[in-house]
């Protein structure tokens, strides 16, 4: 009850006393704190607001102090995991975030089994077995918070499949109707960014072709066909393309379509691929124009000048258009390829380690340039076309030692060919607590 005090000096003294108990009997102290936390959630009287404050401060105290203690014994971590499961039966938004932060800080989370267990806990909180209400901002916000809480746990062994499948089935079809919790957020783009981030670790998705078709349809909404010649002549305005949305959806499609290459290449899908390539060519042209302009704007900019807000945005935009170009190159192959690996534009780039840098240097001789594969397009006859380059011919050595070299005959043909339903967490709900209803089931 002392955690409910409003005096900062008293509160500091209470926290110091609690931390001292940790050094005497950590397990006993944890049992006492969690016992009180669970007791608060069951109490229903006129002081519920005070109980909520105490609960929130206790949780924050646990998160901060346990991190300071470093590695804990397995027995204590098992106790924390078990008690947090009980806490998650009835949590507010802030409490949910605090519990997730506490669990992710445990040493046991380095094991696949523990990370999978945590993901399953979040899946249960997200209520993926209930309908998605796009018009309910609480429902939307809850889903995004759950996914972001679980995202650090996803890997090639711990999959995001439940969330990927839910977004494909319930969110993408009604993306235009999704309502934002606040006016400043482009919620549709935030949903797509979250979806793109988790698509990399989707694992084996059920009914893959059906869900791929949903992603593909959503992608085509942001990838229009090029205008006809008549329209191009009648207007000088550049088409307004939503490149940010395209990056998210084309990345997610690229991640999942590699597991079902026939989605584009099967004979029955010939028209689909032909139409898709026309759209890819159009979006690629727009990307390359933007890349050129951004490079011109950044040319000669170094040091602190690159750290201005405007140039930071240009750098992110350059990364975005480069990502789209790389993905288009992969998909324009015949058959489409799914080999390129990249970092989404809004995420920090992976730093290259010195060892990796040295390996890269070994592969290139001094003065040698990296080979850049151009994007190939279908011409009017359906054939591939790329800019032709003349081959470098062999030149015999000169001087007195080359008199017997004879005449060189060129046999080269020259050139090369390019080839929950109500927006609340699963919980009983604690009546009267400020903000608590957001993450609780309605009675």
Automatic annotation (TrEMBL):
Record region (Disordered): 353-443
Please note every region of biased composition (Basic residues). Answer: 419-431
Instruction: Output the Gene Ontology cellular-component terms.
Output: nucleus
Q: Which GO terms describe its biological process?
A: apoptotic process; negative regulation of apoptotic process
Q: Which Pfam families match?
A: API5
Keywords of the record: Apoptosis
Q: Does the keyword Isomerase apply?
A: no
Compositional bias (Polar residues): 357-374
Q: What's an example of a GO molecular-function annotation for this chain?
A: RNA binding
Q: Which family does it belong to?
A: Belongs to the API5 family.
Q: Which PANTHER family match?
A: APOPTOSIS INHIBITOR 5 (PTHR12758:SF19), APOPTOSIS INHIBITOR 5-RELATED (PTHR12758)
- Protein name stated in the entry: Apoptosis inhibitor 5-like isoform X2
Organism, scientific name: Biomphalaria glabrata
* Upper lineage: Eukaryota, Metazoa, Spiralia, Lophotrochozoa, Mollusca
Its encoding gene is what?
A: LOC106062293
């Amino acid at each position: 009850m002392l955690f409910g005090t409003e005096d900062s000096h008293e509160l500091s003294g209470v926290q110091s006393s609690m931390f001292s108990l940790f050094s005497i009997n950590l397990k006993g102290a944890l049992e006492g704190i969690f016992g009180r936390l669970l007791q608060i959630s069951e109490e229903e009287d006129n002081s519920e607001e005070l109980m909520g404050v105490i609960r929130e401060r206790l949780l924050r105290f646990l998160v901060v102090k346990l991190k300071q203690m470093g590695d804990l014994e397995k027995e204590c971590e098992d106790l924390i995991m078990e008690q947090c499961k009980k806490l998650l039966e009835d949590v507010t938004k802030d409490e949910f975030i605090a519990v997730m932060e506490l669990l992710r800080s445990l040493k046991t989370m380095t094991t696949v089994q523990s990370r999978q267990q945590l993901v399953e806990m979040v899946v249960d909180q997200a209520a993926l077995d209930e309908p998605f209400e796009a018009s309910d901002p609480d429902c939307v916000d809850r889903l995004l918070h759950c996914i972001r809480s679980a995202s650090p746990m996803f890997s090639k062994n711990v999959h995001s499949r439940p969330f990927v499948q839910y977004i494909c089935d319930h969110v993408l079809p009604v993306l235009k109707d999704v309502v934002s919790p606040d006016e400043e957020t482009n919620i549709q783009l935030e949903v797509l960014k979250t979806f793109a981030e988790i698509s990399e670790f989707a694992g084996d998705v059920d009914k893959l072709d059906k869900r791929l078709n949903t992603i593909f349809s959503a992608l085509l909404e942001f990838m229009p066909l090029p205008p006809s010649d008549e329209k191009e002549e009648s207007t000088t305005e550049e088409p307004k393309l939503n490149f940010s949305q395209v990056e998210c959806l084309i990345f997610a499609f690229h991640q999942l379509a590699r597991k079902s290459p026939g989605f584009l290449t099967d004979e029955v899908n010939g028209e689909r691929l032909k139409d898709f390539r026309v759209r890819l060519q159009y979006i690629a042209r727009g990307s390359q124009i933007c890349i050129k302009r951004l490079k011109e704007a950044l040319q000669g900019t170094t040091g602190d000048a690159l750290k201005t807000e405007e140039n930071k945005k240009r750098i992110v935009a350059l990364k975005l258009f480069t990502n789209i170009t790389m993905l288009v190159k992969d998909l324009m192959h015949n058959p489409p390829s799914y080999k390129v690996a990249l970092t989404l534009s809004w995420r920090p780039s992976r730093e290259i380690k010195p060892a990796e840098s040295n390996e890269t240097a070994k592969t290139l001789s001094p003065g040698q340039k990296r080979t850049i594969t151009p994007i190939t397009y279908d011409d009017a006859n359906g054939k591939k076309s790329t800019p032709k380059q003349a081959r470098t011919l062999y030149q015999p050595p000169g001087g007195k030692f080359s008199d017997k070299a004879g005449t060189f005959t060129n046999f080269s043909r020259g050139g090369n060919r390019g080839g929950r339903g109500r927006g609340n967490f699963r919980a009983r709900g604690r009546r009267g607590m400020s903000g608590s209803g957001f993450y609780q089931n309605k009675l």
